[in-house]
Known about the structure:
- By secondary structure, this protein is of the alpha/beta class.
- It contains 22 helices and 26 strands.
- It has an eight-stranded parallel β-sheet.
- Helix 6 links the parallel strand 13 and strand 14.
- The longest helix is centred in the middle third of the chain and has 31 residues.
- Its EC number is 2.4.1.25.
- Keywords: Carbohydrate metabolism, Glycosyltransferase, Transferase.
Amino acid sequence: MPGxxxxxxxxPEELAELATAHGVQCEYTDHDGRVxxxxxxxxxxxxxxxxxxxxxxxxxxxxLDRARDDAWRSMLPPTIVLRExxxxxxxxxxxxxxxxxxxxxxxxxxxPAVPASATPWRVTxxxxxxxxxxxxxxxxxxxxxxxxxxxxxxxxxxxxxxRATFAVxxxxxxxxxxxxAESGGQTAxxxxxxxxxxxxxxxxxxxKQAWGFMVQLYSVRSRDSWGMGDLADLGDLAWQTAHNGGxxxxxxxxxxxxxxxxxxxxxxxxxxxxxxxxxxxxxxEDIRETAYLSAxxxxxxxxxxxxxxxxxxxxxxxxxxxxxxxxxxALEVVYTAPRSAARQTAFDEFVLAQGKGLIDxxxxxxITEHLDGRDWPAELGDPSAxxxxxxxxxxxxxxxxxxxxxxxxxxxxxxxxxxxxDAGMRLGLLKDLAVGSAPDGADAWxxxxxxxxxVSVGAxxxxxxxxGQNWTQPPWHPRALARAGYAPYREMLRTVxxxxxxxxxxxxxxxxxxxxxxxxARASAGAYVTYDHEALIGILCLEAQRAGVAVIGEDLGTFExxxxxxxxxxxxxxxxxxxxxxxxxxxxxxxEAYRAGALATVTTHDLPxxxxxxxxxxxxxxxxxxxxxEDATIxxxxxxxxxxxxxxxxxxRGLTTFDPSERELVEGLHRYLKDTPSALVGVYxxxxxxxxxxxxxxxxxxxxxxxxxPLADSAGSVVLLEDLFSNARLRSLVAVMNEDxxxxxxx
Length: 747
């Protein structure tokens, strides 16, 4: 018998038809292969979040009638996304019998960006209109041919509408073009995006398997850190792991922006903005102007650093609030220092290139700081509100300060990436993109028009999170995003794709469908909403190709099998986690059966490091936090059986003995991954030093110090960046990863 989510009430036929018309799935297959039915109340709530009235049978009937004719109400589709080499036909809706012409205006992407104004931004910030670092210059026109396709006219809203069909030629170049139509004095235009058929992994990476460390940057501290790892530490880590360890990349947690005032949300996966960076990661001393401060101002910086620098050797939870208050005070001092003409020009050009999005983000930060914990009044509800313009002008100096922080962070991230490449890495940095952002954050404010309200995203129950997950982020509104020409998505990608060799997309399945949870409902009482994956994946491929960045999709969890084939077809690497890779009999999948197009790791950041996991500590932790829905004794038995099956698989291949030590087992698992054809192998730095504590326990908030655990060894002693390659366990694992290479590790 199928299971049910929500209140268990069945979905009436007309409601199910309406749900299907708007991409809401009334059933899904869970992690055990069972079909689960979504309740009617959940379907109604999700439709309402999509701006589709469905609370009564009459509302459902009216919404169905509107849905059947919806495409005929607009002259052109909201956005057209196609693959290179494909000839497609585009419908154009006009008064029945009227003549119509259509043409494409090509993007001239190789032209220099045109700034919003030649005047310095700090004068014109409220009127800035540039939309991103790839300001578009339009090129030649391509006239379209009308195809001989007949469609029966329709009467829509008391108007007889006809459909003309135009053929878009297959030889259009990649890029963001504009399709125009004209009929009877009426004109319309829409974005026409031509995307790569396939994103090719760069040849220098594809020629042989590449490996690198996977790290939570905040946890990797040096003696010069201000209580948490920063971008200077990242550069040093990249150099060390390339020069001393032969690694080809360093994979890092999302560096997305946090809020400007304490208390800060610790999760890198719940940022205030995905487009911009957290200034927490800035190394104050590496800002050029810091070197030229007066003695008095230099003392202010040193005084700010003293109380948090000593925290770098503390094994307790990382105190982001203390770090930010110290850094913010120091950064405000450095910000007031004079910049050279060249530096000021570089700053101005950065702001112009990032455009309105940066101005809006900095404005949100300045207003949040100004309100000091008070609720936002209605007159500040969105960036275009008159009250926002007035307050932005009044706070212009703080707006500029928050723009400056982004410029400084961008410079330091670029330097860290370049350090890794110069040290011999083939990829450099592997960045991470979170699923969404906080419901009360900068992105939610600036992009409110393309986000759904009254719902949040998460995941249905699975074997590791048996109550489901609610990540609290508002999802993209599929139709609103298309009407916006996918511009907010594009601009976010363009910023995130800067200064890296690869980008990991957390929960890439969210580009196909997302689990929407109505407000106030349990995480399990949600429904999947589908997205135009051809558009979202295509735009991702286009922007990644322009940036020269490989893309990895974290394709774990509950999903439909065809999705992995589709991602592989588009050249997006998948994710293989050894602990999850099991055949139908429950045995570990043989290395030869792994996907070539994947990043393979032993574990993930949502589980304890491998040593702790194989000791069953994930069961102990979830039992202590009351997260289990099954008997702990049964789960411990499964954990022991899982360990035994791994030992058997490794020993059968001669990778360990039949009774391996903890260290031998961890190294054997990584040798196992080296035997796979996977293009990339990631080694969690926690595994390399013997750490046993998990970074994040899904389903918890204050119950566990998520995202606050500093890097430590098996005894709980802090491991600093300077001491990494003095760690015998790390050196031994690095030697395993380089067994086929001629690499002399330093003694």
